[in-house]
Design brief:
Layout lengths: L3 E2 L20 H12 L4 E5 L10 E4 L5 H7 L6 E3 L10 H17 L3 E5 L6 E3 L2 E2 L11 H16 L5 E6 L3 E3 L8 E3 L12 E3 H14 L5 E6 L1
Length: about 220
C-alpha cells in the first residue's frame, strides 16, 4: 500500500513515506532510512501495522479502499507509493491501486505522488521495451506488465495530481550508497560496459531527491549508474 509524509511546520521540507511492505529491512527499510535521515517526518501506510517494525508512525490503509486512504492521508504532503502483488500473485492490484489513488488524492488535497515503478517498460530501442526482449526473466513478467499498465494510466489521466513514475535500472541490488546516479527518461540507461544497474540505496536517494525537488511532474524518470 502507499506511504505518506505529514505536513510539518512553516519552512520545513516536504515529508515522504515508504510503502506497503511492513518491514524494517529490505526496500521499505532503506527508503524509510533515507527519508528520516534527511529530516522528514515519516508515516507508513500499511495493510498490517503489526508487521511494520520501523521507528515511524504507522497507519492502517488499503490502496484499493478509498475510505481508508482518505482517512490515512490526513495531514500528508507527499505520497511515495510502492505497490506490488507478487507475493500474493495479485498483479492486477498495481494498476487498480494507481487508478484508486488518482481518484482519492485530489479529494484529500494531496497533489504530489511518487510511484515506485519498474524497469520493464523502459525502451532499449525506439518502440522496443526491456520486457519485450528475449531472456527477460519470466518470474518478473507479470509484475512488469502490471507496472506498465500503471504508467499508461498515469499518462492518460486527466488529473491535478503531480505524479512521477520512478523506474530503477534493469538490475537493482542491495549494496553501498555511492551517493550519485544518472537520470533518464523512457530509454533504459546503461553504463560503458552496457550494464543497467543501481543499488537499492542510491535508488532510495534518487526517490527522496525528487520528493524534495519536484523537478519531474507527470513524467517517468529512470535511475541508473
Amino acid at each position: 500500500m502507499p506511504p505518506t509524509p505529514r505536513r510539518r511546520g512553516p519552512g520545513s521540507p516536504p515529508a515522504a513515506a515508504p510503502a506497503r511492505r511492513a518491514a524494517g529491512r529490505g526496500w521499505p527499510g532503506r527508503r524509510a532510512a533515507e527519508i528520516q535521515q534527511r529530516g522528514h517526518e515519516l508515516i507508513a501506510l500499511v495493510r498490517d501495522p503489526a508487521r511494520f517494525t520501523l521507528a515511524a508512525e504507522v497507519r492502517r490503509a488499503n490502496s484499493l479502499d478509498p475510505a481508508s486512504l482518505e482517512q490515512a492521508l490526513d495531514g500528508v504532503e507527499l505520497l511515495i507509493a510502492s505497490i506490488g502483488g507478487r507475493a500474493d500473485g495479485q498483479h492486477g492490484m498495481v494498476a487498480d491501486s494507481a487508478r484508486t489513488l488518482l481518484k482519492v488524492l485530489p479529494r484529500t488535497g494531496l497533489t504530489r505522488l511518487l510511484w515506485v515503478g519498474g524497469a520493464g517498460s523502459l525502451e532499449v530501442a525506439p518502440g522496443a521495451t526491456l520486457l519485450s526482449q528475449p531472456g527477460f526473466p519470466e518470474e518478473y513478467r507479470d509484475e512488469a506488465l502490471a507496472q506498465g499498465q500503471a504508467l499508461d494510466l498515469f499518462r492518460s489521466a486527466d488529473t491535478p495530481v503531480n505524479w512521477t513514475f520512478v523506474s530503477p535500472a534493469a538490475e537493482i541490488f542491495p549494496g553501498e550508497r555511492r551517493g550519485h546516479y544518472r537520470l533518464g527518461g523512457d530509454r533504459l540507461l546503461t553504463d560503458a560496459e552496457g550494464r543497467s544497474r543501481i543499488s537499492v540505496e542510491d535508488y532510495a536517494k534518487a526517490l527522496v531527491d525528487e520528493a524534495e525537488a519536484g523537478q519531474y511532474p507527470r513524467q517517468r524518470i529512470g535511475v541508473a549508474y
